[in-house]
């Protein structure tokens, strides 16, 4: 039996709603892809000779969604080809890994990962059978072959995907070499994003290394809080010069609270002596978030705040394999009180834009939509991570729009390191948003002309506007 | 193109469900409106010559839902005609304000505010075109004209709306002059509600003024905790004499904990000396909520508790424009532990009735429905504020009814200061509740005769019963 | 009018979805019932002469769902036939109690209790009229009569229900006499479950009694922490010898944190001297949960953790009538940080299985699905208690599956002490799960063959697997 995607996937079965969802979707499905936040490595695009490698390198190794699901059923990371840091054994035969993946493919039923994989395999690669233990090697051969074709290089796909903007996420101490190459080549649709999290981890073992690197890259000798701020501002300018639109900040809690200059100096001095405490780090981070808001007012970079992930829940995994292997677990997140100092300072500054992302869905209607529905600086980011899913998006629309309206949301971003899944992810969003709009129409809550306009807004307009993208800004 | 409301708005598109929803709705749509909690100024009805003023005075200035949405997109309150307290400039040309409103009317798409505005403009005022920048002045003229007609005075509309009861919300130190006038005139459907929040704000700058006013109005010289209680009881009696059915209490957290008499005296004495702390206020409030429950047992006033709004999140806004301008933001709310002392004392007292309102939807199924499904005093109020919306109501029914049943809920109240939106708000509730009942029927979970009975209960019966309204109690 | 159940109850009204839901349901509706967690008294089955008693003894007295709903509307427990501990009056005329129940039967509209009662009365007992005040005595007579028939003994129904496994919940200090009888008789489908909660309540008045009983039953003289652990391990072995598959742990919070051996000894010694504090109890419980995980690794008993119920919220009720009368109220529950120590120790141990149950639905998508979707030991239990309901199950599927997948869930259990409601409860789950799968198919997110396979998994396969049930393991 041929493996096929339903042309009506993600649409309600109600005939009236589905009919209209189709019409709306027809209008937006071929619009360019706007990707203002993600984790694609820029090297992949900067190097014209880059290739994706084996199917395992493309679909399994870099995808924590895939890894975690197999791990949850007892497969070890070693068996999936992840090298332990202690030099121990791991599977290096990619055919064996692929076979294991195929044997567990049913785990992804009704999950977004399953939908992205199916869409990518079928629509992008032309696979015609659902992956099973039986056909695993045959499909491996087929994919391996396609990946050698000139149409399947990163750059070829970038063009085929019609990507209007791709923002990567880059640590503040990244050399930006790849972005510089892209810039020189005139590749204006790929942009860096300034992520300074590591600079705030005052009590982390490698913090001093980060600071030294910051000094070198910025040309500002960081020796105290004041020079630290200057160096950061210099780096932001360097990112901006290469087209950065935004900064990105990942925190366990969105706690903000200003320090006096002398408090900030004192804490920073402790960090420089290697004696900063966990509490110092928390207070310094809370202060720096407000500082970053100030800088955004001044340099115009949009500030993104991703809060609520407890990283590396499984300590043994972190020690053995490093971060981003699927063991980050969300925690309840308080926004109203935590963000108050920052928002009181800059929330209605017309120069400021703050985009909020949560992993605590209970905060959508309780805190985030009300905040976005009042502060002019605030936009609510799309459903993030686990909630970048069909039901997750529906809940998001149901919980957010009535309070915040559409125009205080930031559209979609795919947030992916799995480059080939980008079109699939945008497609799910566009389908679900069209279906949701269609429901509003058939229930008499929107008119068709409004829904039609909003479908385009949700597909691309709101994201462009949230990130202050000037059309024709790219290539 | 004519601006019209779908006759099937808020109904599912599923033909079987919609058919039944229509039938149920036909049964309830013309029932009288029962409004046991709201913020309509009684003066508007006490004064037979009162008028609504301009369209801006009617639709924009008093409506924090409208203000916040425009502010969230960068419009300033000054531009919307709100006078800053520092005497600075603000727009006084109502045509300019109306134009601005019209230009931003798309912000309200798929929001309850948008639905109420559309229903009011179309059904009450007969507007025939959707408001746009182009037709804004024409519609302004039209509305201005209608507002001068004798059919569009507050009293005329009160009659036309078929309001069986309208309870206002009045501070404990209100003179009740307007209510006295209404009472004398025999206007028995308008009732005051006793709201003593300001008396508990021990550390607020104007607390002493409130206490002096309490002394004057009650005729009880408040000099200690004991006389404070006596004066409050006197005021409750005065409210009751003018027909009050209920008290209302707004708190950030529903924390309750009794103080000993001497603790209460000590804290109160500190407050009288002007040295009460924030902690004193919190402990005193926690104690007084239990005292109010006791008083309710004794005088029969229904106790309403609205918890979970962090008022005046934006300090600069409060300073410049005062409260109720759209910057109140919800916070997570714990009910199970916080209400335990109060409920252990009075939760099964047959004389007591406590109606709970939350802005934290996660507490609906986790805490509130289980509490209402056990304690005989407790009823669960309708979805409040941001959740007085189509999706908000659906979530409420889905989350609450299975655990609490219908009969432990308190029906609907519109909670509005926008008098003209009252019918629109009840209409949304009636439509959504009929649609929800219809779903239960088509899914085999209720019979049609049960749904028919419950539609009337939800439209009016449950609210009448929750507030212990005696039919024929009014005019 | 005849009282009937819709053959399509719990199915969407959408024709395409309903058609498919029916097909899936046909496939699973007659599968055996697998009941790995519940509260049926084993004596009822161990004694071949046991009978259910009167309709009141069957339907009302043991069912806290029924009691609480009537209490919430002002009926007292005495009026419902519950004997107060102080020897005061209570209704002993079961006909009077039944009449009262019938008069309040409308309270259960659209509740799961209502659905279970209707299903049991109609399908099991053949009642043909909806229970009302008018027909109450007639139906009482009818039920009373049926309950004397040989087809309506516990054992007869056990066979008729096709129960593949029934696990009871038994305190660690239960003699297991009934289970021993069942075992001797070869009744292999009824199994005990080890529940040691009372052994951890160090500061409870009867803790010493429990410890003495533990010594007697285990044959290990418990005098310190070390012998306490040994005695517990002995009891687990005794439960296992009678076929126990699992342990069960009920806690207000799932806080876990290891104690050093000397800390554990010190706290235990304090408890033995009768001077343990609340804090001691909390720390000891947090430690013992990790110990129980270790024991599960060693003896293979599946560990069930039920967290988030604040037991006996209404103190007066507890004092007067004892526990389990409907006054347990859920609280917000934090899992990510609380379970971290336990999961870091044993979460990826292949010998370990931990099944989690929550009463805080906000934790489904935020914490539990992500945890179950990473740690190989973790499975997510079905919607529990208040959420064992049509909407509760739908929310569960919507919130959990996309992140955890189907295969990290533990299927269904009925968790009931109301033996006769077991088929009704499984039927609701099977209907709702088939309907949910059908929706995935009509929305193009699953194929029909996948849904068909998953329907069987949800009906019985996942539960068998989660509890490591070997087929043919029973009689």
Write up this protein:
The structure is a homotrimer of 475-residue chains. In chain A, the strands form four sheets. A four-stranded parallel beta sheet of chain A has the order 6-7-10-11, covered by helices on one side. The first copy, chain A, is of the alpha/beta class and 475 residues long. Chain A contains 20 helices and eleven strands. The model of chain A has no long low-confidence stretch (mean pLDDT 97). Chain A folds into two domains: 15-50 and 154-466, Metal-dependent hydrolases (TIM Barrel); 51-152, uronate isomerase, domain 2, chain A (Orthogonal Bundle), CATH 1.10.2020.10. At the B-C interface, helix 16, helix 17, helix 18 and helix 19 of B face helix 4, strand 9 and helix 18 of C.
Sum this structure up briefly:
3 copies of one chain form a homotrimer. With 475 residues, chain A is of the alpha/beta class.
Helices and strands, with pairings:
The structure is a homotrimer of 475-residue chains.
Chain A: H1 15-28, E1 33-35, H2 43-46, H3 55-59, H4 64-71, H5 94-103, H6 112-124, H7 136-146, H8 154-160, E2 163-167, E3 170-171, H9 177-185, E4 190-191, E5 194-195, H10 197-200, H11 207-218, H12 225-241, E6 246-251, H13 261-272, H14 278-299, E7 302-307, E8 309-310, H15 315-321, E9 329-330, H16 340-346, E10 354-358, H17 362-372, E11 378-380, H18 390-404, H19 422-442, H20 448-466
Parallel strand pairs in A: 1-2, 2-4, 3-5, 6-7, 7-10, 10-11
Antiparallel strand pairs in A: 8-9
């Amino acid at each position: 039996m041929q493996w096929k995607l339903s042309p009506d996937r993600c649409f309600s079965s109600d005939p009236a709603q589905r009919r209209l969802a189709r019409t709306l979707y027809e209008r937006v499905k071929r619009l360019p892809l706007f990707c203002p936040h993600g984790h694609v490595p820029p090297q992949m695009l900067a190097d014209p000779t880059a290739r994706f490698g084996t199917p395992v390198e493309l679909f399994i190794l870099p995808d924590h969604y895939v890894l975690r699901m197999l791990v949850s059923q007892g497969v070890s990371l070693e068996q999936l080809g992840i090298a332990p840091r202690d030099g121990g054994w791991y599977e290096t035969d990619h055919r064996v890994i692929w076979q294991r993946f195929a044997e567990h493919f049913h785990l992804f039923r009704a999950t977004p990962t399953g939908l992205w994989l199916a869409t990518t395999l079928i629509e992008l690669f032309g696979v015609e059978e659902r992956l099973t233990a039986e056909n695993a090697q045959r499909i491996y051969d087929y994919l391996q072959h396609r990946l050698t074709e000139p149409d399947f290089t990163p750059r070829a796909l970038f063009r085929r995907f019609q990507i209007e903007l791709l923002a990567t996420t880059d640590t503040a101490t990244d050399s930006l070499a790849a972005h510089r190459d892209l810039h020189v080549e005139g590749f204006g649709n790929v942009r860096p994003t300034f992520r300074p999290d590591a600079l705030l981890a005052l009590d982390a073992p490698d913090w001093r290394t980060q600071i030294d690197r910051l000094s070198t890259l910025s040309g500002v000798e960081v020796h105290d809080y004041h020079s630290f701020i200057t160096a950061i501002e210099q780096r932001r300018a360097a990112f901006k010069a290469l087209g950065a639109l935004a900064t990105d900040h990942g925190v366990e809690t969105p706690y903000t609270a200003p320090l006096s200059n002398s408090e900030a100096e004192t804490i920073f001095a402790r960090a420089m002596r290697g004696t900063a405490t966990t509490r110092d780090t928390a207070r310094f981070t809370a202060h720096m978030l407000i500082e970053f808001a100030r800088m955004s007012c001044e340099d115009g970079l949009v500030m993104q705040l991703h809060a609520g992930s407890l990283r590396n829940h499984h300590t043994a995994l972190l020690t053995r394999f490093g971060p981003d292997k699927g063991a980050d677990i969300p925690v309840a997140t308080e926004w109203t009180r935590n963000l108050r100092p920052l928002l009181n300072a800059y929330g209605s500054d017309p120069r400021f834009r703050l985009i909020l992302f949560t992993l605590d869905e209970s905060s959508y209607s309780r805190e985030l939509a009300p905040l976005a529905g009042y502060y002019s600086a605030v936009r609510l980011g799309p459903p993030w991570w686990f909630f970048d899913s069909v039901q997750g998006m529906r809940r998001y629309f149901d919980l957010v729009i009535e309070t915040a309206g559409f125009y205080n949301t930031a559209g979609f971003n795919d947030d992916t390191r799995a480059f080939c899944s980008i079109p699939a992810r945008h497609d799910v969003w566009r389908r679900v948003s069209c279906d949701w709009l269609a429901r509003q129409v058939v229930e008499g809550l929107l008119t068709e002309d409004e829904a039609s306009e909003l479908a385009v807004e949700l597909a691309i307009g709101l994201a462009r506007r949230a990130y202050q993208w000037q059309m024709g800004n790219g290539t």
